Amino acid sequence: MAIANDLRRGNAIKINGAVCVVMDTGHVKPGKGPAYVQAKLRNLSTGKSSDNRFNSSENIEIVPMTTRKLEFSYMEGDDFVLVDPETYEQENVRAELMTDVKDFMTENTPLTATYVDGNLAMVELPPNVILTVSDAPDGVKGDSASNVQKPVTLETGVIIQVPLFIKTGEKIKIDVKNQKYLERA
């Protein structure tokens, strides 16, 4: 057991019978009343986020977590097959766990897999990925105002906004969290 003041981003805790990952914390000392810890939690079974408030000295049950570096290999039916690049051990992952990352994954994309109690709980991409533009319409002549953008389709099928000079076949770096164009690769 730990106290709420010890909560840090990335911890897994058990609250109301559910395992949640701490996404963000903040210590609050209001003018009136006792201090408390405000934490943003993501429930691993439902994927939903919530804000929770804990008394500073409240006991919290920390759940052990482990992480592994894996790579996306291929699809097998609806399952994603992930491979450990060192041992070549394969693991089939349900599509529900991959909804946040599947739009920016291609073969051999590195991933970080988080396990809670020996079960895969979460899969994360690196902060930036490099993908190829599969379809980019030409920019309209005369559209030269600052920061004019156009929609392009990436090799994974997702559509993002990029500057007018990006052409079909180019590789671009994308910020995965914001789903935004960063630069040419």
Q: Could you give a short description of this structure?
A:
The protein has 185 residues and is mainly beta.
Summarize the structure in words:
- It is a single chain.
- The protein has 185 residues and is mostly beta strands.
- It has 3 domains: 2-63, SH3 type barrels, CATH 2.30.30.30; 65-124, OB fold (Dihydrolipoamide Acetyltransferase, E2P) (Beta Barrel); 128-184, OB fold (Dihydrolipoamide Acetyltransferase, E2P), CATH 2.40.50.140.
- It is built from no helices and 16 strands.
- The chain has strands spanning 2-3, 12-15, 18-28, 36-43, 49-55, 59-63, 65-76, 79-83, 90-93, 110-116, 119-124, 128-135, 149-154, 159-163, 171-175, 180-184.
- A 6-stranded antiparallel beta sheet has the order 1-6-2-3-4-5, with no helix packed on it. A 5-stranded antiparallel beta sheet has the order 9-8-7-10-11, with no helix packed on it.
- A hairpin with a 4-residue loop joins strand 15 and strand 16.
- The termini are far apart.
